[in-house]
Amino acid sequence: MGSPKGYYYAPGRYTVLHYCRKMGVNAQTADLSISNTDKYRAEYYQYYTGGNYWTNPVNYDIILNSERMGIEGCVQMILHCLEVKLGICTETV
């Protein structure tokens, strides 16, 4: 069966603003760091899986937009996914 696979996404403008607040950097630095990280993730995914692009939805069981759902909303959806796919009770988590 395996663990559920998730892809967690937020639009670029939201990601940059969140990164700026969290890391205390300007938008240009945040954008460069995010771009470099995304490039690394794409290369890593390709190397280890031989698969198609790492953001392709067919590779995942669940895709969540953290701008729309919020971090806590995403956490709740992940917990629900674990309950459904693996039969794990997450009420006490």
From TrEMBL:
Pfam families per the UniProt record, alphabetical: Cytidylate_kin2
Keywords associated with the record: Kinase, Transferase
GO molecular function terms noted in the UniProt entry: kinase activity
Tagged with keyword Kinase: yes
Name the record gives this protein: Cytidylate kinase family protein
Species this protein is from: Candidatus Scybalocola faecigallinarum
Taxonomic classification: Bacteria, Bacillati, Bacillota, Clostridia, Lachnospirales
